[in-house]
Amino acid sequence: MKTLLRTLLLLVTLSSAIADTAVKAGPRKGRLLEISPTQSAEFFVEKDRTISIAFYDAALKAQPPAAQVVTATAETPAGKTKIDFAPKGKLLLATAPLPTGEDYQVVIQVKPDANSKPKNFRIKLLLYTCKECGNAEYACICDH
Ligand SMILES: [Zn+2]
After folding, report:
1. What is the Å distance from ligand 1's center to 26 Cα?
2. Which fold has domain 26-139?
3. Which of 58, 60, 62, 83 could form a disulfide with 72 if both were Cys (CB 3.0 to 4.6 A apart)?
4. Distance, CA 111 to ligand 1 centroid (Å)?
């Protein structure tokens, strides 16, 4: 029985690990986050280390930000830093750059509107460019 339980646990761990690697990239070569079947957001890190978020419909047509509420939490070894966003043109732009360093987790919380349940996305912040797909490693769509 114990062995069976352990096998089941292993299977659950394995399948969630597989689900995590199915990364999709958006039109800006950022990481695509599925908010709902008809709406997605794209996480992109600008050159000055600020995060920008773009919204798309089901056909990946850009949509201006509406009632969405986005916050980011950078989980660095030194502690957690919360980052807010403000609309700028067709994007939501972080009001502060990411803390220095990389290889830490960034949690993006998206609420479709102020009254909806939030959805969390955990992204490992790796900023180097993947040689195979040409995306930043946080948005790498390769199988490695
Ligand atoms: Zn890649």
Report:
1. 13
2. Immunoglobulin-like (2.60.40)
3. 83
4. 29
Tell me how many degrees the CA angle 133-135-136 measures, rounded to the nearest 5. 135
Torsion-angle region of 45 (φ positive above 0: left; ψ -120 to 50: alpha; else: beta): beta
* Cα-to-centroid distance, 99 and ligand 1 (Å): 24
Specify the pTM.
0.84
Residue-wise pLDDT for 51-85, tens only, equals: 999 999 999 999 999 999 999 999 999 999 999 99
Across 95-121, average pLDDT: 96
Per-residue pLDDT of 25-36, as tens digits, reads 999 999 999 999
Question: What pLDDT does 22 receive?
Answer: 85
> 50 alpha carbon to ligand 1 midpoint, in Å?
22
- Distance from the alpha carbon of residue 43 to the mean position of ligand 1, in angstroms: 16
Domain boundaries, given as residue ranges, for the chain: 26-139
Distance, CA of 59 to CA of 56 (rounded, Å): 7
Q: How far apart are CA 72 and CA 92, in angstroms?
A: 12
- Say if residue 5's pLDDT is above 90: no
